[in-house]
Amino acid sequence: MTSSAPLTFPAWTAALGDRGLTVLSPSHRVPVALWLRSAEHGMLHFFARGTRVVLRTHRPEDLTWLLLRSECDCAEHRTAGAGRRLVLRPGAVPVAEVVLDGAAAHDWRGYDAGLIDVPTAAAVFDRLLADLAEPVQAHGAVA
Questions:
Q1: Which listed residue, of 21, 31, 48, 135, carries a Cα 20 to 30 Å from 118's Cα?
Q2: Cβ–Cβ under 8 Å, residues 99 and 137
């Protein structure tokens, strides 16, 4: 009998890539936040904060690059290249949103959603992604 290793964030994002979802650079493990590009859903933003886990869709044009420059903004630093960060444009409104209410489903308090592990996040993501076909404002426990 072989035991499988626990799902890691890099393994999960690689598996999402294998499913045709492009994981974008601002994604991170703790608290979980994914920015993804999907042919079917456009831009996806999955995140866990407080007692909620949320999956939102946005129009591709709602994302833009914010150029990060040094405080001095001198020619030497501009020539070296400015950093950049992917952000939502001001005023962007989600096209759709599905939510796991962890307070109702799991008795989460405070910031418990931000502490979910990768396997749990992956299961919740799959559930919420499936639910995008039938948008609902809040969900109970993940099956």
A1: 135
A2: yes
